[in-house]
Amino acid sequence: MDQTELETKWRTALSSILDELTDKEFRKLLVNLEKIPQGLKGGVKGGLPRGNMPSVIILHYGTEGSIALIDRQMKILPRLDAAVQQPLKEIKELKKLLKKNKETHPEPQAPQVEDVLGLKLKTRDSQDGKDLWEKSIFDLKSSGIFETEAIVGKVVKKSELLTYDTKTKKGKFFFYLGVADETASVKLMVYGEDLHRQIKEGSSYIFRNLIQDGKYVKVNASSSVSETKPVNVPEEFEREAERLVYPESPLTSIKDIKSSPPQTHVSVEGTVTEIYPVKKVKVEHEEKKMKRFKMRQEAEEISVTMWGEATEQSKDLSVGDVLRLEYMKPKEYFTEVSLNSSQFTKITKVQSVGIQKVTLKIRGIKKATLKETQLEVELDTKLQTLVVASRLLAKTLDFQLKKGFGDDLLKRIPLSVEAEIQGNRIIKMADPENI
């Protein structure tokens, strides 16, 4: 049997396998066939019929490469029944027979190419298009990994830096990574503070000399980590990698958060009732951005503080928005419990009020600079702080913008204005007397 005969038999077997898949399974398979242009994929608008797909798959992945690919994808779906596995088994046996024939009657080999240093150039594994040293995460989890092998994957999630104690030293550092490739995801346990700074979420890396210790796959001092080109990861494996590092926490009521002992992380839903401007505060000799707002859930209200980069997630919030906050850290100060953002905090708007047109009464001035002014305003019988560009304020109320303008403005309040607000910021203003 030669390669042509193998391809012919594989085309027939592949057609049989694809016919066995449900529409949902077939669509899931197509998502992972990244080498095939979207317009050619069957099952999508303008795509080819399912019966044409065996030829398309073999064209883009080769005979042996597509056999290995389909074998792997059927395990992922999973389709381990005889209707799918029997044709695969027969083809793999034919492949072994072809390989045995080649070994018995080898073809003449071209001279080995060497680089200028006399080192042998890398060869490719003809079965799945990977380098000989590269192992998929799916295969790592199912069969382990040798010292000569490595995985290549995208760092989807990185934990905060953690510590552990040894018999001789305290405060050693480690952290977790959620890493994924096109086949699966895995949780890596990584030692070292330097690697925590070096490895970035969203980047892809080659992980070599990994250690398997019980349920953990570890990266230690003898391992090698090198950044590489981006790895395409299906959305399902991205979500799985996130959950490996930080499992989803069920929603907790504000009442339970206040009455229960402090937990590591919680998720909560509520309605925004008040928003405060961003501030810069010193924390352990380091200046950090901070933004606070309050959330209500039925009769209970809680203060929420976002820190650092997490403040960006709350910049477009408005009073009345319904939010889901995930991965928040409860904190008790004296008898008051509040929520603080963590490295993994995620804000989702369940319901947004967007831009609001309101009539508000200016009651006081909290801070006034030539750039922006923080006003204490009365809105819906409640006091809150809103921020407005000082130039807009001066134009609306017809005063000269100069140093100390706040003192002159104080003489005119309380006064009412028509405004459009987004979050805690006034974006448009009009003096009712001039409308």
UniProtKB/TrEMBL annotation:
Residues covered by the HIN-200 domain: 155-309
Source superkingdom: Eukaryota
Pfam family, one: HIN
UniProt cross-references to PROSITE patterns, sorted A to Z: HIN_200 (PS50834)
Name of this chain's protein: Replication factor A
Lineage, highest ranks first: Eukaryota, Metazoa, Chordata, Craniata, Vertebrata
